[in-house]
Amino acid sequence: MSPDLDTAMTAARATPVQAPHATPDPAKAKAAASEFESVFLSQFLGSMFEGISTDPPFGGGQGEAIFRSLMIDEYAKQMTAQGGIGLADSVTRQLLKGQEKLQ
């Protein structure tokens, strides 16, 4: 190895890598927490709807399975928009607390 390359590699190893400091952004944290709550509620509602059978003459089939998942996603988004179950508020606080520790 050349002396210049060896010196550069030694200097690179000695220099600590700094993580970028994130400025706490309450709007972004709230949006991420709301999206998390919506996904959580969607999974929760999905398991709730699994046991519901459909009416044979007018329901069932592949189409209903696809549209049911879309309906459940929209239910979850609307529940979150109406205040949800309080999960988004807790997640927002934790995200902001974690961002403050990085500074």
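The record above closes out task 2.4. Task 2.5 opens with a second protein, given below.
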Amino acid sequence: MAATQSQSASMDTFVSTLQQRFPQISFRAADTFYWSPREQAVHYRTTENATDTWSLLHETSHALLSHTDYGSDFELLSLEVAAWERAQSLAKELDVPAIDTEYIEDCLDTYRDWLHKRSACPDCGQTSLQTSERAYRCLNCAETWQVTQNRHCRHYRARQRTT
């Protein structure tokens, strides 16, 4: 239990440093790490290990880069790359141990995998073109389908039927 309290206190100290450095951003304890542009708040877990610190820097970087929304799946991946690049700079500025590049690639792979699953044609399996925020069209077989807007849920692909 003492280790948990110590880890929590250490994370609180780091969050306090971030709050002082970036007063325009709110920091709120939560069950997971995420940036809420609507609230202008970075939500974070109060545990502390290297990856939690890195995740906090990553979400803070979304805030510093003014990331609010994205219009395509590829744009979301681009925002994630930019936030990790900014997090690496931020780690240097704050004398935090360097972010492991393999960890960054693992995190980015989750987005790449998500994008690939959404863009795979439900008919022929070919990677396809996103035509709008929630729609794809296969250049191979001309199939079209809708995907969910939520990036955290299962990959549903509802075919669009033409009449």
